[in-house]
């Protein structure tokens, strides 16, 4: 049997610095986003990135896309030397469930 129904989707995460958010794209369609705001550090204290809001469109729900997006967002945040203020309940739960991210909060 042949057909394209089994073809893999192209899923990727990108940062939109102008909009202040991370986006997850499925076949180049924005399926969800996580807003953030950065506050500069003071002295030797690192800056803080606050994640207030995470959204995945209903038609893309239940596929683990939000977790994938937040995982990448937290890794990029770590790479920039920032701490995390997870005011979004989804981000807070992600950090609780992934001990390797706990050092960011």
Automatic annotation (TrEMBL):
InterPro entries: Acyl_CoA_acyltransferase, Gcn5-rel_NAT, GNAT_YJDJ. One of its GO terms (molecular function) is acyltransferase activity. Residues 14-105 form the N-acetyltransferase domain. The keyword Transferase applies. It comes from the Bacteria. The keyword DNA-binding does not apply. This is GNAT family N-acetyltransferase. It comes from Dietzia aurantiaca.
